[in-house]
Design a protein that fits this description.
The chain is of the alpha/beta class. The protein has three domains: 3-269, Rossmann fold; 274-407, Isoleucyl-tRNA Synthetase, Domain 1 (Orthogonal Bundle); 430-480. 42% of the residues lie in helices and 15% in strands. Bound molecules: adenosine monophosphate (AMP) and zinc ion (ZN).
């Protein structure tokens, strides 16, 4: 039996799916106006381990994730500047190009982190009609009002508003921290459809019954989740920052429209923090997977690092901690390589012929992951397994590879794990150089030539020269330069 901590009840609950051994999951996806930062990636890794755990437990999982390629405002309130528009303006490209570029970058990062691609990936811009249809339903039920050309959700017409975040109704009205918008009846009312943009000439506009405009941010998740998973489904996830506004508003829209319970289990991942700074896309202080690779780390070192903390605990990122994770992952690969060498002919023992001791190990592992995704405990269990004297090498190998279906560390049990040692000082640092070149190409593509030049200088300081050819960049030691 799987148990999850449900944010709705603030309790650990037995997971009872709507249909036996089937599970629908919706996860809020990336906002594609910039690279995902490693905090975002932590959340996607957590969601990936949730999916893998369900699949390991025998569930058939339908995983739906949106891609926000329109109308995400600079904070969760309905004010500020559209981030995609701003990013496009700054880089001199169209919003459509920019969204496509960062969507591809996101899935590249996810692939390198061994995050399984959701069965359904849906772009907001492909679902405008579904959003309009949902807003119409809300209008028919008297839950919206028009003010200064925009369509607002009226929270006073939806009494359960704020239940997920345990917002107190009085504080909702009086203690509002957000700027009071004169056009709203209640400070927490939010826009479903904009026709009066705060920006000049927004480039993404669609016709609607309320005029030409674009959707508010929250409506896409309600519309797309219900389209692909039905009006009531099993699990919805995201980071904890989404509890008070985004997910609260998603519930209001969905349950307001259908009159039915929408999501049964809400799982929220805690934040990744930097030691001395808040990681934020809008302030530009964030680390990406490219930064991690540029320091010579493998993306899976970061995945391993994330697995060492429970998803509901904050995790502080440091390069030292990442180096420890790299070492641990390397040791793991080596141990598996040794097991393979010790059991060469037999190889991994098939699970159905496990000894009682091996079965006992597997059950304990199931208990670790089944109790609200206890990945740190499961990882400790894996290390315990490798030290266990009572199991044969073949069984250990089989169990470790079986557990890796959940960890997603891509453990292959090759005798030579094949990982190149970090280059010694003075040697060309190929992976690092290639990562820097990749980062520079991305910066150039995004029109950030200052950043691209900075990387060129950084390479030169490392004794590396580069030459741009159509479609690729060559590099060579400066000493070889003609
Ligand atoms: P965004 O692209 O900003 O919508 O964020 C994508 C996902 O990352 C959401 O589920 C956020 O809740 C989550 N998130 C944002 N910042 C962090 C962070 N520092 N640590 C972990 N998750 C985060
Ligand atoms: Zn969402």
């Amino acid at each position: 039996m799987l148990q999850f901590y449900n944010t709705l009840s603030r309790k650990l609950e037995d997971f009872i799916p709507l249909e036996p051994l089937r599970c629908g999951i919706y996860t809020c996806g990336p906002t594609v106006y910039n690279y995902a930062h490693i905090g975002n990636l932590r959340t996607y890794i957590f969601e990936d381990t949730l999916r893998r755990t369900l699949e390991y437990a025998g569930f058939s999982v339908r995983h739906v994730m949106n891609v926000t390629d329109v109308g995400h405002l600079s904070d969760d309130a309905d004010s500020g500047e559209d981030k995609i528009e701003r990013s496009a303006r700054e880089s001199g490209r169209t919003v459509w190009d920019l969204a496509r570029f960062y969507t591809e970058a996101f899935f590249r990062d996810a692939g390198e982190l061994n995050i399984l691609t959701p069965g359904v990936v849906c772009r907001a811009t492909d679902h405008i009609d579904d959003m309009i249809a949902l807003i119409k339903r809300l209008e028919e039920r008297g839950l919206v009002y028009l003010s200064e050309g925009n369509v607002y959700f009226d929270i006073s017409r939806f009494p359960p508003y704020g239940r997920l975040a345990r917002l107190v109704p009085d504080s909702l009205r009086s203690g509002a921290r957000i700027a009071v918008d004169q056009h709203k009846k209640n400070p927490q009312d939010f826009v479903l459809w904009f026709t009066k943009s705060k920006f000049e000439n927004p480039s993404m506009l669609w016709d609607s019954p309320w005029g030409r405009g674009y959707p508010g941010w929250h409506i896409e998740c309600s519309a797309m989740s219900m389209k692909y998973l039905g009006e009531t489904f099993d699990i919805h996830c995201g980071g904890v920052d989404h509890i008070p506004i985004h997910h609260t508003n998603e519930i209001a829209q969905s349950e307001g429209a259908t009159g039915k319970p929408w999501v049964r289990y809400w799982l929220h991942g805690e934040f990744l923090l930097l030691k001395n700074a808040k990681m934020s896309k809008s302030s530009g202080t964030f680390l990406t997977l490219a930064d991690i690779k540029a320091r010579g780390f493998h993306p899976l070192d970061y995945r391993y690092f994330c697995l060492t903390a429970h998803y509901r605990s904050q995790l502080i990122f440091s390069w030292e901690a990442l180096a420890a994770a790299r070492q641990a992952r390397k040791n793991l690969e080596q141990r598996l390589g040794q097991l393979k060498a010790q059991a060469p002919e037999a190889g991994a023992v098939p699970p159905d012929s496990f000894s009682p001791a091996a079965q006992d190990f597997r059950e304990k592992f199931c208990r670790d992951i089944g109790r609200d995704l206890g990945l740190p405990q499961a990882l400790a269990r894996l290390w315990g397994l490798l030290k266990e004297a009572s199991l044969s090498p073949g069984e250990k190998l089989a169990l470790a590879l079986d557990m890796d279906r959940v960890f997603g560390l891509n453990l292959k049990a090759e005798e030579d794990p094949g990982e190149k040692p970090l280059p010694a000082a003075g040697e060309p640092e190929a992976p690092l150089i290639e990562a820097l070149i990749e980062k520079r190409a991305a910066a150039r593509k995004a029109g950030d030539f200052a950043a691209a030049d900075q990387i060129r200088r950084e390479l030169l300081e490392r004794g590396i020269m580069i030459r741009d050819l159509p479609g690729k960049t060559l590099w060579f030691p400066a000493s070889d330069a003609p």
